[in-house]
Sequence to fold (304 residues):
Amino acid sequence: MAGAKNHDYHILPPSIHPFFGSMSALLAFGGLVMWMHKMPYGGLVSAIGWIGILYTFYAWWADVVKEAQGGEHTPVVQLHLRYGMILFIASEVMFFVGWFWSWFDFSLFPEPVHLIDGAVERIAGATSVTYGVGIWPPKGIEVIDAFGFPLLNTLILLCSGTTVTWAHHALINGERGGELRGAWGLIGVGENDNVKKGLWLTIALGVLFSAVQVYEYVHAPFAFKGLNYSAAFYMATGFHGFHVLVGTIFLIVCLARVYKGHFTSRQHFGFEAAAWYWHFVDVVWLFLFVVIYVWGGWGAPVHA
Fold:
């Protein structure tokens, strides 16, 4: 029969999303360039582009959800989605490799630094500089106490890793509970609804982590600019904080889909991808805590 589907692959129909998303990205970053050069309407152009990017995110993922609910995500398609998520996480790992690389370069081979027009420049062989010679952290810097808020955030993320695993395990075993209806309509939810409980706890812990990090930044004893130590610190920890925010949004979407009954014990790749991403965020934070907060601030005065 002409046009009959005799394979397990999902052939995507034509979509406007790639073109619309790429044009939105062009507007967003082109507008940023205009704004940086103080050209008129640069901020407006960039704002329009970012709105288009956010809309593309929503519309494109909504289509993916519809495809999953329509039965298009066969076992073969799910396998390829898993490959894609693994490669995506691997690319994110390489981002953090760059931040860790800069941190180790600055700390293992400390060179004199000083300020030139608000920027940091290395001066090889100099004998008199602003922030000290050959030491890390640079002399005069007070560091954040690793066993204060950073340790608290470590415990928060470790707990969130257990709650998302609890939710995943409950989903695999069909512990989704559900609505209980009687003669007068809805009277409650199932007592064994561990998927929702685990997701609610994980999201709450993610929000708490972000709140603690914002508080830490507000009270940090050093600014972003002016020194390689502070720039490397904020780029590494801030980039991770952005990933926590993205992961929290990812889990919120999964929670909404659980309430809609989208996931089953055999088909729940959206949830699985969110759990993988969250565990990736957990592992990266452990490295950040040990390398940047504990080892990177060893021997320096601690900010009270």
